[in-house]
């Protein structure tokens, strides 16, 4: 068979996935490290589960449970049991909390970071693998656990470079929403399962208010809504009066936390669950206040409900408040970068016993995008010193040089391509963002010297109209071979 | 439906996978960080591809290609194309090198770390997800690239805590083996495809010499071998004379590199490919020598062949030379923790153009196990300071305390379980390996003080027969509330 007839595999990243290069990797790692250090200081312990879980253990908790593929990548194991890639870090935690319940400390504070996978239609900026960075407390029903997570989230954002004032952690409570729905007649406290579908629609509708606006949400609260594509989404079937009550809840935020709480108290009326929710919000605010986390960082905001069905109490969301330009050059708020809440029933799925839990997930990739949009990402890392190869036969000499530089802690490499064309070597050094090139031909070798080329300075000289400002600093320098390391160190320090 | 009739999901780690807790996670992270820093200093750039690849791009390069499932976890995407979890980090690199060949610097040095997945029968200590930590140079055919990888591997091992003398990097060359096989008549230089199956069997047989011994390998070189279970593995069909030549190669190692090279030269006789291989080994040794990497770290050892089929030139393997006790209490050498080699054809699969490449993979989990076996793992990390809860109503006070401690950089947490039973709180602190417990009842609160319990000292006193040695240091201390942070810092520093 001739070469031409061989069908070659396509060198393609699979659809919806992407590759990360150089600083894209190290920047994310630095962010994960910084957040992990905050979580650790708060007493949380690392946990790493594998990417694979049984489908049974994962359960179905993605917001859009109605899609045919259910949002996960799944396959059959040899023994015919179904396995799947985890779609978040919460479901594996619930499994771990149940599996090791006799061994883990209780309450169990844990943090986890790593990729999760979603079998979704890829879109611009939407990938089928992305990182999450979670912290959860399992086994505490106290709102102090929720307050702690909010404070920690605030610390984490500031630690990675979002200054106070550029973000806000919004706190709400599902119980207040339940109270409001009780008042509106879509919650029967004696039969919580009744109206569950309607409440799910209400929840997801409110969660989309930023995108759909008041009108869109009202449509979904009522009969339903036809989107731009003509697709119709069935609504919750609330009448105008009921919808009014719900919309009143969404816009219940007032200037101060106390005023918001007072307004919420009005809205939940005599609902016991509603009153419980309002009182929890008050407690969270006061616990945070005691630690110095005031409304400049954390606020009560009834507009935040979170789309996930499994939350049972406090919910929270971190939003970046600064504006960025979107793809079309329009200003818009950056929006949510983290969210979470209390989910008291996930562990119960396994054990039958109620285990209260609360936690947060930081969308690391979105947060990185925000820092880049604000120009606050770490500076591009410097490339390595490149030792060029003038004489192919003296490779051992060049490797000795690079060895010495590395021993001194200097990032360095010898050119390993075909050394014939020296211009290519300098182009390579340029592509590598190399600060210094080391050159030694046979002449220099005979004289016991090396030439150092200051590539940073060289680039500056190439850009500037006049050499005046650089004249005191030579872009090229000959030094004794024995002084190689010291001279490179000096050049790098300039 | 009654609770009892609900079928609950099993809380189980999927078969062959495992969970990692606390220091198991942080120790591995510290090791990956340390190795990554070495790779970076050598000029390698980070690359992170996703866990998922197309089956087409992955190819079939696992050593045991004859198993039915072919060793990978695979499933069909919506568009009916097959996707799979990566089984190593080399196949994705080959895909990346082909896909971005016009944008990447050439040669391209990259490092990558992360989990890989094998759809294999799980066994003791063998998991279906594990970490690899790779560094590869793509686009350089120079043996200087191989030498560099060997030096870097040596540095990496010493950096993570394997002292010189406790490891050795063994280098060999597939071309030498090919030369030997040419001499033995199982390689026809004019038709490289001929005898390929036989050479694969020879390769895998030699790779198993530690396990099968001389006799087992000889059987596989000849007619074949029946294992303990009675299963028969077909041999390469070499006659006794041919097998003798191959066995001579495996045991060609002599006291010095020069002697080994001389012996190999004898063995390959007039084979051109064999001579090329011997000469490459000589060059690698001299390049390493120039950087100070002598035979105390890196040696030529013809016993190392590596099982993978795709290697085309130098192969290398890092072995730990110290003895550990196995599960049955017997002494044995720890063995291989890293390996790699030159594979010049993997990128060609995609592009049709030859792209030389060489690289190493460190088995991080095995290396960690080795360090633990030698008692060289990092000390168990200290738990957090635990602020106990005496009065449920004063949670805000306790959270203020823990907030102050965290602000001062002290790892601390407030007890978030049910505070009713104070004994449980101290048991919790014990389980958390907490060094200090902070206690403030209403009496202490009224007097503006807190009590600090030194739990490390407490544990020591509980263990020792006499209090004499501890009498100067009280295990419990009352300090002013305002001095909380300073007093805890002092207690932690002791």
From TrEMBL, chains A, B:
Keyword field: Aminoacyl-tRNA synthetase, ATP-binding, Cytoplasm, Ligase, Nucleotide-binding, Protein biosynthesis
Similarity comment: Belongs to the class-II aminoacyl-tRNA synthetase family.
GO molecular function annotation: histidine-tRNA ligase activity
Pfam family, one: tRNA-synt_His
Protein known as: Histidine--tRNA ligase
InterPro entries: aa-tRNA-synth_II, aa-tRNA-synth_II/BPL/LPL, Anticodon-bd, Anticodon-bd_dom_sf, His-tRNA-ligase, HisRS-like_core, HisRS/HisZ, HisRS_anticodon
Catalyzed reactions: tRNA(His) + L-histidine + ATP = L-histidyl-tRNA(His) + AMP + diphosphate + H(+)
Organism listed in the record: Pseudogemmobacter faecipullorum
Domain Aminoacyl-transfer RNA synthetases class-II family profile: from-to ranges: 41-384
Subunit-level organization: Homodimer.
